[in-house]
Amino acid sequence: MKTIAIAEAGGPEVLQLREVEDPKIKDDEVLIRIAATAINRADTLQRQGKHPPPKGESEYPGLECSGTIESVGKNVHRWKIGDQVCALVGGGGYAEKVAVPAGQVLPVPSGVSLEEAASFPEVACTVWSTVFMTSRLAKGETFLIHGGSSGIGTFAIQVAKYYGVKVFVTAGSEEKLAACKDLGADVCINYKTEDFVERVKEETGGKGVDVILDNIGGLYLKRNLESLNLDGRLFIIGFMGGSVAEINLTTLLYRRLTVQAAGLRGRQPENKALIVSEVEKNVWPAIAAGKIKPVVYKSLPLEEAAEAHRIMESSQHIGKIILLVK
């Protein structure tokens, strides 16, 4: 099969199309012939040598895909050959085929094309496992999303609005903020021209928001804590602004704040299967009802993975970048 390999740590140019052996499935896995995969920030970090695959996972990049099941392991009962699916994978999504634990596979939501379905697994599982399963975001609460125009951001806006939450976003251009507003965001903040802490306080009567989803990390930690309501929860999923910061812990104590952080890729298969199951139960009906739509910025052929990475790293995109596998 064809796959995209990382020749060495470096820029997008190190991504190379190669011919490799087909993956072999275990008894609890399925083999998917991939139709499409999607780019994630973690893929660019892996390419740079900063985010190696967990032990036992494919060395090739790609954390999600959609396609058709080509074979099933002997312990797999739900899925059959020919099923159209999408999946959360630990690696190997930039390829023609991938082996996936059956518990990480989802049906293609009704009303969504097979190619568009590749845009959902990583964002849906990330947002649901962090904001809803862990931070317990609930109807009537307020929620700040940093990077509202990203793949995760555009999904998080829609799922939060579906569940009756008031949504605040930050983004770096008026075009991106307009896209967030069109998706349902209530308060749109240009972080380049406004202080998001002041704007949050102004919009909440001085209280702050209940939950923040943050991909910046150290640079925003103090300001995020200042932006939280009593009993507020900050969930950190990335470190684009560094991983080291200093805070006064009394802030957490007096206002009963919670700081949480987690990744998705390194979780155990059993934990991923639980998240996927919760996503299918709680998110897939909203997609089928047209309340959550795929937001795809651009689709490129697999062999143009390097260009897809350049777009991702330029941060010019709104939503997801897809690679089509012919």
Describe the structure.
It is a single chain. With 326 residues, the protein is an alpha/beta fold. Helix content is 29%, strand content 27%. The protein is built from eleven helices and 15 strands. It has helices spanning 41-47, 114-117, 121-132, 151-162, 174-183, 196-203, 221-226, 250-255, 269-282, 284-288, 305-314; strands spanning 2-6, 15-19, 29-38, 64-72, 84-88, 97-101, 105-107, 142-146, 166-171, 187-190, 209-214, 228-236, 258-261, 296-301, 320-324. The strands form three sheets. Strands 3, 4, 5, 6, 7, 14 and 15 form a seven-stranded mixed β-sheet that branches. It has a six-stranded parallel β-sheet with strand order 10-9-8-11-12-13, sandwiched between helices. Strands 1-2 form a two-stranded antiparallel sheet. Helix 4 (151-162) links the parallel strand 8 (142-146) and strand 9. Helix 3 (121-132) crosses helix 4 (151-162) and helix 3 packs across helix 9. The chain is globular, with a radius of gyration of 19 Å. The N and C termini lie close together (11 Å). 48% of the residues are buried.
What value does the average pLDDT take?
97
What's the number of extended β-strand segments? 15
Strand % is 25-35%
Structural class, from secondary structure content?
alpha/beta
Intertermini distance: 11 Å
Order of helices and strands: EEEHEEEEHHEHEHEHEHEHEHHEHE
Q: Nearest-angstrom radius of gyration?
A: 19 Å
Approximate helicity band: 25-40%
Low-confidence stretches: none
Question: Shape from CA axes?
Answer: globular
Strand count, sense and closure of the main sheet? 7 strands, mixed
How many DSSP H or I helices? 11
